[in-house]
Every structure is written in C-alpha cells, then in structure tokens.
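The methods section describes the discrete structure representation at length, but only in general terms. What matters is that the chain and its backbone geometry are given together, residue for residue. Nothing conveys this as quickly as seeing an actual entry. For illustration, here is how one protein appears when written out as sequence plus structure tokens:
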Amino acid sequence: MTTAVTLQVTSFHDGPWGGGVLLGLGTDGGRETLRARIPGRVLPRRPVPGELWRVTGSLGAYPVRDPRTGSVEEVEHIDAAWAAPAMPRGAAIRRWIARNPAIPGVGEGYAERLWEAFGGRLYDLIRTRDVEALAEVLDRPKAAAIV
C-alpha cells in the first residue's frame, strides 16, 4: 500500500547507497518521529533541517539502534518512491527562512519581520523570486539569498 506524508525535517543521515534516511515530524501536530528511506535516484537534493518534505512510498520495517540503550528494534519507515521539498506554510516558513544555511544572516528576527510585512503573500513572493519586494524589509543580498 502506498502512503504519502508531509514532514518537517529534523535530520538527514546519508546512506551508503547514495540516498539516506530522512527523520522528521508529521505536519499533523503529532510528536512521533517519522522515517523515510530515500534512495539516491529519488532524492533531488539533500534535505535541510526545518524544511518541509513530501514523501510517497510503501511502508516497511527496518532495524534501528537506540543510541542511549544500544537496543535494536524494528521501526516503520517509508520506502520512498518519490520525495521533494514542499513549500512551507505559516510558522514553518519562518523557521525555514531562519534556519536555512543557504540564507546567511537571516535569523528569527528577520524571518518574523518578513512574515509581519507580507503574511501569506510571503509564499508567493518567494515562489516568484520577487527580490525587490523582499528588499523592502531586508537588504538586497539577504533578499536574494531567500529566493
């Protein structure tokens, strides 16, 4: 059976097969860690903590070692047939902007200012790469880094 989830990335662990294992929290408000095994042929780029990713695939159980106790247990993973970053929404876009290493110099404060200035329009400004609008709040280099 195929399942599809959107999750907020907490970490990504490179695998020996060219892809890796993505760990994240579901966007439904649950606190359970979700795991997705993503092969290199499916992974468009390395996930960044804080991003939202959409993953589709079948479920399988794989052994996972608990680093605290050393015990190993079978844990459900999604064997990804498809995976891609998703556009963040609400507070998630602020976290994505503030924590994305590709956007240097823009932290929580600037991310909050952008949200206050543009609200829901912020998604469209980023998607359409509107540097000029973002530069009304940030300096031009920071605005360009976001888009």
Residues 91-146 form one domain. The first strand starts at residue 2 and ends at 14. The two ends are 37 Å apart (CA to CA).
